[in-house]
Amino acid sequence: MQFRVEALDQHYGSAQVLRHVDLTIAPGECMAVLGRNGAGKTTLLKCIMGVLAPTSGRVLLDELDATSWSPNRRSHAGLAYVPQGREIFSELTVGENIEAAARAHGTYGTAAMEDAIGVFPVLREMWKRSGGALSGGQQQQLAIARALVTEPKLLILDEPTEGIQPNIVAAIKEVLTSLKGRISILLVEQYLDFAIDVADAFLILSRGTIIEAGRAEAMSREHLTRHIAV
Q1: What is the distance between the alpha carbons of residues 82 and 148, in angstroms, rounded to a whole number?
Q2: Which of 1, 132, 185, 196 could be disulfide-bonded to 30 (CB atoms 3.0-4.6 Å)?
Q3: What pLDDT score does 223 carry?
Q4: How do beta strands 56-61 and 3-12 pair?
Q5: HEC letters along 23-86
Q6: In what order do the strands lie in the sheet with 184-188?
Q7: Is 18 in contact with 8 (CB distance < 8 Å)?
Q8: pLDDT of residue 229
Q9: Residue 44 bridge partners (DSSP)
Q10: What's the predicted TM-score (pTM) here?
């Protein structure tokens, strides 16, 4: 999928949260969005997914203008969103969470469903356990697998390592690295070492404005740290 955002603005009342944001994600690559708290990162993802309507600007999927599309239509067009806080169905089992997404996207019982479950083998062991009984890291694995069941062309992740134990962070990094080349990834992340390990390109936001963007190889860790350190 060719994915672009053009001149995106977004306001909360009189406060402007995003200012003329442009970005392009190359097919099969990972773009990491960095910035301090309040920079507009989560708002950007919500506008891309259709959870929030932008004040102006466009969201383009393969040159189709998706700006007015519902989140459901965007999901069926190939966007998958794992929000901050994961938002799994805590009252449903692991299996029911995954099966619900698979049935909604026509992948129930297919190889795509099995492949998505297989990225985190522990989910099979917890298949009948309620989502609410899982640790934060296990819930994050479930949320990512549930997104992958939909066969996305663009996987959107908001702070996937937040509050997660190191061994699961390592497992998530391995999965994202393996997905590159097959799907595109848009990642908001505060854990800089994780972002550096998986990202092909960076976009840095400050007060809703892009202050820098470029290829990963052109940006040192020290340079990136200056833009996100509190």
Answers
A1: 10
A2: 185
A3: 84
A4: antiparallel
A5: EEECCCCEEEEECCCCCCHHHHHHHHHCCCCCCEEEEEECCEECCCCCHHHHHHHCEEEECCCC
A6: 79-82, 154-158, 184-188, 30-34, 201-206, 209-215
A7: yes
A8: 64
A9: none
A10: 0.95
> For residue 196, what are the contacts with CB-CB under 8 A and spacing of at least 6?
216, 221, 224
User: What's the CA gap between 118 and 205, in Å, rounded?
Assistant: 35
Taking the C-alpha atoms of residue 7 and residue 60, their distance in angstroms, rounded to an integer, is: 11
User: Which residues of the chain, if any, have pLDDT below 50?
Assistant: none
Question: Which pLDDT belongs to residue 80?
Answer: 97
